[in-house]
Queue: 2 jobs
Job 1
Amino acid sequence: MTTTWRVRPVLLDDEPEWLDLYAGYRAFYEMPADAARDRLVWSWLHDGASGVRGLVATDGTRLGGIAVMRTFERPLDGSHGCWLDDLFVAEAARGAGAGRLLLGAVGVHAGDLGASVVRWITDPANATARRLYDSVATATPWVTYDMSPGDGRPG
């Protein structure tokens, strides 16, 4: 039997399943379990002030995937973009279209906001996801850096 996925905004009733999926996302990227941080992200999805928004893929009885996104300003371009922070599909739902549907819904959300781009990063070794990403988006030549706060102070 083929599962039919649909995408909708995350709802308060999704909390237990969403938290399980987010914990799975952490584990996938070999991040330590952190229920307190997961609950913080959950709260951002519903506080109305953070700008963080969420979508879920559901078959009507269970969640199979999640997306977390937010807008950002693009000063050089004079526009706003949509940053896809997190995209995760449960292992049992992979290959059934949930990830593609989530990406499409993020694109629709970004278009509704008037965003000029949807942007995200991924692990270069995440070959399975990259096959999907390469089919819907263009990989950029930009290199991403992380700097700890305070490290950039002049000596």
Job 2
Amino acid sequence: MTNSRNTIQRQLVLSAVRQLQNHPTADEVYQEVQKNCPTISRATVYRNLKLLAEEGEIRLRNISGSPERYDHICNNHYHLRCEQCGKVMDVEMPYMVSLDEEVRKRNEYLIKSHDLTFVGLCPECAKKKH
């Protein structure tokens, strides 16, 4: 745990990530924070996103085919990414710790966790396609 200050800017950034709940990019968080604090700089938002992720308040997600995103849910879970519109959503299913053990047995790696993203079309994009 770090001894960083809990500034108003940090609280605005954390609130924005929690409120958006859509795995926002840093720029989307910046746009949301600017609604309540028009004078905040992009650098301040980005710096606070980094600090909040380092402190474990939010989680940086590197989802293949997508820019870096921030997640208000910090525990291990799975994601869906629409290949058409880019929307990222959580998968409502339990994290499979047994998968970590299976990979460890087969590869002799010391596995900490895994990230899994399912790629396809969201319901809205699927409707447009048909």
